[in-house]
Amino acid sequence: MRSTAGALATGVLLLLATGGCSSYEAYRVRFDAPDYVVTPDYYARSPRRVAVLPFAARSLKGKNLENAQVCRLAFYQHFSARDFEDVELQTLDRKLLPEEKPHARGHLRQFADVVRKLDVVGLTSFLDLKTMLKRDDRDAETFRSWVRTATEDLDADAYVLGLTRGYGRLYAVAFSSIGLATHLELRSTRDDALLWSADYRARDVFLPLTIDPLSVPMALFDVWRNSFGEALDVLAFKTYRSMVRTLPAGRAVGAVWVRAERKKTRLFAQPTLWTFWPRPAVKKGARLKFLQERRGWYQCAGPDGREVWLLVRDGTLVDEVGGPLPKNDPLGGLWKTDR
């Protein structure tokens, strides 16, 4: 039994050594990074002025909508430092939410209800709701009017939709947990085309793990402190910082290509954790047409026209003449990972 276990462990170590950094990177982007997508439209449209619409929640209760706006502020703190010309939140809200007495179907709830339904049924575009909504025409019209306002009155060429699927805490004296599940989309105001989207689930769990009886009171105090709302705010701040990191800093004019940067850049049929085995490869400098970026991988049109994937670390986005895309984000270094 021991010899079998030892052989297995040796095999795993050999695989890790063979895979090297590419294997580590594949695992990292799969388990320790937001699930994000960047489409070719992101570069084709190159949005300049973006409106961050009020965030929605899975539940339309007042407390949940309030928490959603806390998430919106956390996201905006990071997003507003990027190179986009964002619409100031107060200016946007004054246009979208005129002063009125709160009522059961206020504008925010109408808008949030449409976003919630989009998420529940898994639609990829608000435009698809035209043939589905019959009894909720008023809610759909609120959505349309908000996008029109962002476009016509505030000159935005893209908007951000945000949804908090779960945001809360649990406290049980010797145990506390806080969590946030959220979804973001950046869409064109012209035709609702998806430019970028990201999903992330973050959770912090506190347990009084100690072998020193004298430290138990302090450990229980830490568990209690983690049940406060401030801990949730910090979690939201960190979560949206990680999501904003996935927004590309480059711009483009024309088609976008991926240039291979390794001596032998390996290609895969799909994103995978197993980068150990020999795969088809292209030489350094080869250019492949960019199709999308997803969770640390580029999808491209391969040499034979088939769709292939390569790790982002193994390629560079370039323009039609092979030059790197210009980066217009002077503060982009703030979002680099520490790894």
Walkthrough of the structure:
- The chain has 339 residues and is α+β, with helices and mostly antiparallel strands.
- The chain has two domains: 210 residues, Rossmann fold (3-Layer(aba) Sandwich); 79 residues, Roll (SH3 type barrels).
- Helix content is 35%, strand content 25%.
- It has eight helices and 14 strands.
- The strands form two sheets. Strands 1, 2, 3, 4, 5, 6, 7, 8, 11, 12, 13 and 14 form a twelve-stranded mixed sheet that branches. A two-stranded antiparallel ribbon has the order 9-10.
- α5 packs across α6.
- The longest helix has 30 residues.
- The C terminus is likely disordered.
What are the defining features of this structure?
single chain; 339 residues; alpha+beta; Rossmann fold; SH3 type barrels; 2 domains; twelve-stranded mixed beta sheet; two-stranded antiparallel sheet; 8 helices; disordered C terminus
Residue-averaged pLDDT, rounded? 79
- Low-confidence spans: pLDDT under 50, at least 5 residues? 8-19, 332-339
Number of helices: 8
Helix content: 25-40%
Oligomer: single chain
Number of structural domains: 2
The third-level CATH topology of the largest domain is Rossmann fold
What separation lies between the terminal Cα atoms?
37 Å
If classified by CATH, what would the architecture of the largest domain be?
A: 3-Layer(aba) Sandwich
Note the main sheet.
12 strands, mixed
